[in-house]
Amino acid sequence: MKRRIRTLTATILCICLLMTTGCGSSGGPGLGGLTGDRDTSGGGLIEDWTKDEGTTQWSTEATPQPTPTGEIKTIKIENDYYSVTVPYGWTWEEWGVGAGFCFRCVNPEDPSMVIFYAGALSPIFTSEQQKQPYYGLGQPLYTDAPVFADQTVSSIYANWEYIVQYQIKYQGFSLFPVMTDIRDQGSQITNDAMHTMNTNYTDSIGSAYATSENGTPVIALTKASIGGDPMDLFALGYDSNPKNIYAMYFVECPQDKSENVQLMMDCVQSLKFTEKAIQEAQGY
What we know:
- It is built from 7 helices and 14 strands.
- The chain is α+β, with helices and mostly antiparallel strands.
- A hairpin with a 7-residue loop joins strand 8 and strand 9 (about 115-125).
- About 45% of the residues are buried.
């Protein structure tokens, strides 16, 4: 999988996210392998630049906008596949295609300010029993996968440090920023879009306090859908189908700058996919 970086500063930066076209399916790109057949990687500082690579068009017609907090300006970027409003001057990275599309923005002046979106992350399990059949198949991607106690973002926080190491092991880097001393503040089940489409998924939002990689006390806010269809894949009398994290929206912000958290979450949730992106995703 390819990954590119640039910087989001002056006039563009394109990001738009496709909220899982195959929402009801249980498959998806791995927590350890966010891959796709078509490389749409792009990024760097959000600054004045134009990019034309294949079918991806990057324009320079955006203008930074002030926000209520004053500390962050935002800029809207768009291309043939997505549009999104992101913090001006932050770095931008993207990976994957279709339901597996992911992006991450980081403040280069304060790396403990991070937002990211992940379209589909898998595999996860909800019990050790579900993993047992995979040991006989020699599938370490599955046998090493995290086990969630429930289908809320509290389980993401509980497994956060493990997931970072799991992603590094299987894909060479981690989409999740390094956080330690994580104190989950609880999750609220919202059961909105994804749950409405498939009741085997649980939609939730929750926060946590933690320490960032550079030692800064931070607050994390995560919204995600977790679950998957139960299937007895090995005729053993129990569900052995791996589960997924879908449409994960994440914010990390220093605790002394917490007034920016809602703005940062609004940015990551502003991702919209075009009809073209949705149609192409149906082929993946």
